[in-house]
Write a structure and sequence with these properties.
The protein is an alpha/beta fold. The protein has 20 helices and 25 strands. The chain has a five-stranded parallel β-sheet with strand order 4-3-5-6-7, with helices on both faces. Strands 2-1-11-10 form a four-stranded mixed β-sheet, sandwiched between helices. α11 crosses α14. The model has no long low-confidence stretch (mean pLDDT 91).
């Protein structure tokens, strides 16, 4: 465990890596599945590989400031490559594994990397057609390449030097560590330049928040893509900074079993994951029924009541609640591995009802807020003073204020250095006084905790001039068991309409009972009526302006594969509107 002052002593991220890994020595550090079992890589072994690769990159001509593109799923080699690039004086340019060839071509043309590192032939298949120069390093397997290709094993083996690459001494905290491309919710991705110091500052901020949990011998399960700034900082460099072990999840379909195998103490996640987990847990409880289901819902009700400061439990309720800790909450904790201290939610606003669900069941959820442009953490709830409808107070040393229109402005050491090759765009986001204009709208509560209300550019202004938050309404809709996903529409229109994706389990169950296919269900009157009843339930709880008057059903979920979700599962509204816009507009035909 580092002393807090050590964060300031580390001159760069690679220096932190070598310091920490040599402290670990032969202790397990990075865990990945091989032959069906999680197997560890020690700190010493990871350091030797990173040092060898860093020197190998120098031999390939990588000099200070050169870019190296990294395309890989989460695995030990991701961190080793990232650090080796920085140790060589280079700048890491991560790319999502879900990128198309066109996406890769955009980054290659924009960042002009000298070397590209890719993990598998399957990922290389979409990447290599876009590569026109430089050298490719392939972690495993083989592939036909238009440029020189070198196996990873050759780059990390045969080097008997065990110390840090000599080039590391020239890397300062003000140098660019990485260029992380935004996930493109509003258009073409932009390359965000983040310094070593900005990420180290974020790591120290995370330490200050979580240290009250007694950080010691921590275990992380890395699930979100490391090409996203949230996981890059919170799921990679922060665990490294406290000497934690990192397990690499196999993907969302294996997450439940990976939780039981890794038994993490800390984990990062995005709101969509919590929503999916909540839905699956409620469905499982409904299938089980009987006494266990009643106990589960009783634990949920008492936990929710306990959370509300104004609602104290009676003596009988407190005794019942303690019994339910053993009967229900201990079983819930076991599903997460049994030793989880906290799950940190970020990437998008978490519906307070979803957060309350897990809190009531004994799973601590700390919601934070940030952006790629802030490396990324701006604020986060503290374990002892959290409120689920806020994202907590700003990190120590970070200034946050609200513009006249409610936009959140941020200033401090965590800010990006700018957008790569886009000085004009940078100047429109960071003003002359050094304030980053986030594009998010928020407010502070009486305790100085920040509350995010919407994205400034996503706010719907109806034809009457009223401002409406689409995310709020979408959050309510997707809490209904019949609804899987939703996007609300209505800018400059008289009322709201929506695209609704049925909950896939509900859809399958309906088809199993009534017959038909998913494509047929979207126009089947009885099925539409069932979804309509769910929409009506939500409409009864909101203001008249927020009511969804009409909707279209679509059988195919929003996904990363069809471009309607970002890799961190946020809706790409412009893509959904491109695909379904005509049908949405047709809902207004005949409207008053």
């Amino acid at each position: 465990m580092p002393a807090p002052e050590r964060y300031a002593a580390w001159p760069n991220l690679a220096a932190m890596f070598f310091d920490q890994t040599w402290r670990m020595g032969e202790r397990p550090f990075l865990w990945a599945k091989r032959e069906g079992l999680f197997r560890p890589l020690t700190g010493r072994h990871a350091a030797m590989m990173a040092a060898a690769l860093g020197r190998g990159l120098r031999r390939l001509g990588v000099e200070k400031g050169d870019r190296v593109m990294l395309v890989s799923e989460n695995r030990p080699e991701w961190l080793i490559a990232d650090v080796a690039i920085m140790a060589a004086g280079g700048i890491t340019v991560p790319a999502y594994t879900t990128n198309t060839t066109a996406d890769h071509r955009h980054i290659l043309n924009d960042a002009t990397p000298k070397v590209v590192i890719v993990s598998t032939p399957a990922l290389a298949e979409r990447l290599l057609p876009a590569v026109t120069h430089g050298t490719v390093i392939l972690m495993e397997g083989s592939a036909a390449s238009p440029v020189p290709l070198i196996p990873w094993a050759e780059m990390v083996a045969g080097d008997d030097q065990t110390g840090m690459p000599e080039t590391l001494a020239a890397v300062t905290g003000d140098d660019t560590a990485c260029i992380i491309y935004t996930s493109g919710t509003g258009g073409a991705p932009k390359g965000v330049m983040l310094s070593h110091h900005a990420i180290l500052f974020n790591c120290q901020g995370a330490f200050d928040i979580l240290n009250t949990l007694g950080l010691e011998n921590e275990v992380f399960l890395s699930f979100l893509p490391l090409s996203h700034s949230y996981e890059h900082t919170a799921g990679q460099f922060f665990p490294l900074s406290i000497g934690a072990e990192i397990y690499y999840a196999e993907g969302i379909e294996r997450l439940a079993s990976n939780l039981l195998e890794a038994r993490p103490t800390l984990m990062t996640a995005v709101p969509r994951l919590y929503e999916l987990l909540r839905t699956r847990m409620l469905q499982a409880v409904a299938r089980e029924g009987g006494l266990r289901a009643r106990a589960f819902h009783h634990a949920l009700a008492l936990g929710q009541k306990r959370y509300e400061a104004e609602a104290s439990l009676s003596l009988a309720q407190r005794l019942t609640d303690r019994l339910l800790d053993r009967l229900v909450r201990r079983q819930v904790a076991a599903r997460f591995g049994g030793r989880l201290k906290a799950m940190i939610s970020g990437g998008a606003p978490l519906n307070p009802d979803v957060g309350l669900f897990f809190t009531a069941l004994g799973v601590r959820v700390l919601q934070g807020y940030g952006q790629t442009e802030t490396a990324p953490i701006v604020s986060c709830n503290r374990p002892g003073t959290m409120r689920l409808d806020t994202v907590g107070p700003p990190l120590e040393g970070v200034s946050v204020r609200l513009a006249d229109d409610g936009e959140i402005l941020v200033r401090g050491p965590l800010l990006m250095q700018g957008y790569w090759n886009q000085p004009d765009t940078t100047s429109t986001v960071i003003d002359a006084d050094g304030w980053l204009h986030t594009g998010d709208v928020g407010a502070f509560d009486s305790m100085g905790r920040l509350r995010i209300t919407d994205r400034k550019k996503d706010i719907i202004v109806n034809s009457g001039g009223d401002n409406i938050s689409p995310q709020r309404m979408e959050g309510f809709l997707t809490l209904e068991p019949e609804i899987g996903q939703a996007m609300v529409h209505g800018d400059r229109r008289p009322h709201l309409v929506a695209v609704i994706v049925p909950n896939q389990d509900f859809l399958k169950a309906w088809i199993g009972t009534h017959g038909g296919s998913p494509a047929q269900m979207v126009d089947e009157p009885a099925f539409r009526k069932a979804i309509g009843l769910a929409v009506d339930r939500v409409n009864r709880s909101v203001s008249p302006l927020e009511k969804v008057r009409r909707f279209i059903l679509v059988p195919e979920p929003f996904s990363v594969a069809n471009g309607m979700l970002t890799p961190t599962l946020k809706v790409r509204r412009h893509v959904v509107r491109q695909v379904h816009g005509a049908r949405l507009e047709s809902l207004y035909e005949g409207s008053l």
